[in-house]
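Hi support team,

I'm opening this ticket because the web form for multi-chain structure prediction keeps timing out on my end. I have pasted the exact lines I submitted so you can reproduce it. The total is 688 residues across two entries, so I didn't expect it to be a heavy job. Is there a limit I'm missing, or should I split the entries? Thanks in advance, R.K.
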Amino acid sequence: MLENTSRTDIETLGEFGLIEHLTSVFENKNSSTLKGVGDDAAVIKNGEHCTLISTDLLLEGVHFDLSYYPLKHLGYKAVSVNVSDIYAMNATPKQITVSIGMSSKFSIEAIEEIYAGIKAACDAYEVDLIGGDTSASKQGLIISITAIGEADEKNIVYRSGAKDGDLLCVTGDLGGAYVGLQVLEREKQVFLANPQAQPDLDGHDYIIGRQLKPDARKDVIEFFKKTELKPTSMIDISDGLSSEIFHLCSKSEIGITIYEDKIPIDPTTYNMAREFDFDPTMTTLNGGEDYELLFTINPADYDKVKNDPNITIIGHCVPRSEGVHMISKSGNKHALKAQGWKAF
Amino acid sequence: MLENTSRTDIETLGEFGLIEHLTSVFENKNSSTLKGVGDDAAVIKNGEHCTLISTDLLLEGVHFDLSYYPLKHLGYKAVSVNVSDIYAMNATPKQITVSIGMSSKFSIEAIEEIYAGIKAACDAYEVDLIGGDTSASKQGLIISITAIGEADEKNIVYRSGAKDGDLLCVTGDLGGAYVGLQVLEREKQVFLANPQAQPDLDGHDYIIGRQLKPDARKDVIEFFKKTELKPTSMIDISDGLSSEIFHLCSKSEIGITIYEDKIPIDPTTYNMAREFDFDPTMTTLNGGEDYELLFTINPADYDKVKNDPNITIIGHCVPRSEGVHMISKSGNKHALKAQGWKAF
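Hello R.K., no limit was hit. The queue was backed up. Here is the completed structure from your submission:
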């Protein structure tokens, strides 16, 4: 069944290339399908309202390691990751479905822990759990969540609306989730080498929290509403700043210049990156899993964001022909690469 | 992490009990959530229209065996299973999302086969593929599909509307998918014992097709629309006739009596069940995966269904206190048991 005369490895296309390749032959037939594959969420028109749909698959051994991942945090994160995609469309998540596959090694109490985390996230984001599926799994834990959101058509922000001259903004700070993961991996290795050793997580609360229990930026969408600010384009940072910048550039047909000294990084992230001998800036560019929002605004809206402590302007849009660059702290211009986190 | 002082095996609750147990603490907060957990699909209100959401997880080794499952059929079936849940609400599926996890043993050509089946199903059911996720998997092939449907609120049929005296109807015929699976399993064992042996599938096209490439009953929903027939309750047959009857009884607070000689079974299903030494009736009651529709109608609507070759009246609703029974061919009354297919 799996042998073909022609055989091409998945790695040759990469995740985004694979999705594009597989979905390019599909054509939308229903007039209610406003936006299909290619943004943070799909958009379905229902009269004046739109329904937004986003889905993610989280797999043990690929997206999380149960040896250091508390099940409750995992449930919370699985919801955060999905509602983050709805916020990235400037929409409000309203419902989720949760499908879980688990092996018989899981007790009901263990699954209750996952659901306790899902419940905490449902409360935090004010979404309803409306359905799903549970199944036995022969090999580990599988969590598939679909988030359903709501927005007026005129308020939806796609990846494709950025214009030359727009300002590029990011919320919060970057790189923490990646460095937090490195601390957890390091302590796991110490534990495997010496099971009597106690994990040394002291002083790493912030970065470990960024990895284990990220919060989607509900507050930022509420800020946009309050200040009547509509970004020209937006995406959430799941794969790393660099990769997301390339998505905005590609969909909006623009170039972007960012400034290294503007990229927000928490001191604990910075110091820990140094301890691991990482370049802290590379950590913010390629780390991923921060679930912050990256968006562009019309320069006329500068006053609305300039004093907000949650938002940092890190660059601006330039014509497509100028490409994607970072001006380093020393003033040199470097071409950026779209690395980010790859699931293959 | 997984050790708890208290440990209860999942098997003690079963799939439906587990879902109920886990979701009972969740309360719906959004007024747009008309129906959450507990029917074939969830219902979200958007102005005059409703959006219906259903999701299913298909796992290698649990729901399918790649040693005899053609990948294209698998893609088709994964969509059928999901849109069937939308039809079971008397609604029209419009969109799907598809998330796939797969190991690196899969080539791009193999995944293309799955997507070719998904595309064929999208064309057959007139639904749009609007999103999803692909990921590496350490756990074999994983397919998670969410179907999104549309209906006017007044047309939606829940599991809960059946009344004493209503007629119980089923579409198509039952048991074929289960017997087809037994043929495939038998030929797999023959092959494992002697890899030179050729599979003997001659004359089993119908039942194997019922297992490998089931069609959801789009035609029946269209028939309801044309004849202005609105069932009082409805469910699709994924776990077996018996199990689905118990769902209708529980949600509608009724009892049901069915007649063994009325249960539709194809002659090839009947003969093959005999060859396997199964009771053909038990095959229809507990086999599952037929994806036919089971529904109740007001007796006043009898004329609308009586001559339809796709619909068979197999019983009627009685008061809850009378319970759930089958009148056998010999005229004896047997209490039915809710068995059906269990994923745990």
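A quick check on our side: Chain B touches chain A through 92 residues (CB under 8 Å). Let us know if the file doesn't open in your viewer.
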